[in-house]
Design brief:
With 216 residues, this protein is of the alpha/beta class. The chain has 8 helices and 5 strands.
Amino acid sequence: MMEKIRILCYGDSNTYGFIPGRGGRYDQHTRWPGRLQKLLGVAYEVIEEGLCGRTTAFEDASEPGRCGLDGIRDAIERNRRLDLLIIMLGSNDCKTQFGLSAQEIAEGLGKLLEKAGRAKDYSFRILLVAPAAMTERVIQSGFGSEFDRRSVELSKELAREYKKLAQKYGCGFLDGTEVTKVSETDGLHLDVQGHRMLAEAVFDQFPLSSDCNQGE
């Protein structure tokens, strides 16, 4: 019997499935990893590692324990024998408390990629997804104390830096802003349609091109 192709989705609240406007979590069949599982079929196993508030490599003073850099190795070790790692992070790095540039966020993500690459039995490919850009609706939402107009503009700059990062590390790349959009409710989180659009866009990446990193 052939082993399933195993995919780990490592992200923040938009991988967790936070419901815009009212909180809580979308069910597995609504969240984009669950939709991706259905599209790929039984030959694949899609594993969700979404955490609300997760950053690339920065410690959030108001929400400790959400640093993606600190958690990536544990996530990989918990789900040994991976074929693909999908990373979608960066929205939380745009919070005003960090005062970061898009380049600095990408540098943090680069550290995460390097740490992931040092995992035992590293032979998986990596698909780097730039999160869909925020809209100014986020400023009027319940998250307005954490994000401002500069945060919105910063979120639009991530894809450019992430594309360069993907080229540097030999990862696949997908620009979330081009394939999906955040909800009109809070300008930050994907709604039902947004999750569907993202799942379909990720599915369209299969089979992954041979230039995706397979380790060394």
